[in-house]
Write a structure and sequence with these properties.
This protein is of the alpha+beta class. It is built from four helices and four strands. It has one domain.
């Protein structure tokens, strides 16, 4: 009986870990989608014009609270902006975000609403 109980406990622990990983990954994906929506709604065209030769390059953002990555792919037009919830292949800048989980959305929103968001991203 003790062995069966241990196996059941290990299975429950494994399921809990996988469930927590799935929740964390879902949060990162949601933040990436929200970033795209915020750029569509509030993004200014001027910063995109400044991208110039950096178009197509990546900026990687790592969230310590969620242990997840979002990669912003730079574009010279707002309509071409994209970001993905994965680690960048060869980023030109890496940001490590150490804010609490409940403040991540405010941070992303303020970065997107700023006038020179590429340079502000690198300053963070």
């Amino acid at each position: 009986m003790a062995i069966i109980s241990q196996i059941e406990d290990q299975e429950k622990t494994g399921i809990d870990v996988r469930a927590n990983d799935l929740i964390r990954e879902t949060k990162v994906l949601t933040i990436a989608r929200l970033a795209i929506m915020l750029v569509d709604l509030f993004g200014l065209d001027e910063p995109f014009k400044k991208v110039g030769k950096h178009s197509g390059q990546e900026i990687e953002m790592y969230f310590t609270e969620l242990d997840g990555y979002i990669t912003f792919i730079l574009a010279s037009e707002r309509e071409n902006f994209d970001c993905v919830a994965e680690k960048a292949n060869s980023p030109i800048a890496r940001l490590i975000i150490t804010v609490e989980e409940d403040k991540i959305l405010n941070l992303i929103s303020s970065i997107i609403r700023s006038k020179n968001n590429l340079f502000n991203l690198i300053k963070f």
